[in-house]
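Re: the 149-residue chain
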Amino acid sequence: MGIRSVKDCNKASMLKYIWILFTDKESLWCRWIHSNFLKKHNFWVAPQPSVCSWGWKKILQLRSGFRQSFGWEVGNGQSISLWFDNWMPCGPLYSLVPDSFLNDPYLPVHAVVATLYSHAATSTRLRLEEWGLSFPTLSSAYDRFVWRA
């Protein structure tokens, strides 16, 4: 009959907002969310504010169920969170390593993937590679946010 589930349509529209959050950094809504709710936090681990709109709460509630559906293809590594974004085949880096790695002065919590290739972070990258993790080669292309589902 072509009748859609309102619940599924609503979920799809909320997922579209997650997509916009990562792909359209210049939109007024995206800039507002970053300045008011995310500030110094990555979207995937940001705390839910006590006072916010119903829509933002629903978007944050969708994170855990759809995190693996969103990912990154590494280009120059300048726009991907090293620790929290899903850019490795095995998932976000913070979920694979002990918390002591997050305290590395050369790779702070807000580090991007390109930071991993800096001279100062060489020893940490080598330690991570000893754990069996392999890292992509950086290129001059822009990083791409992708739908993996």
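Residues 6-69 form one domain.
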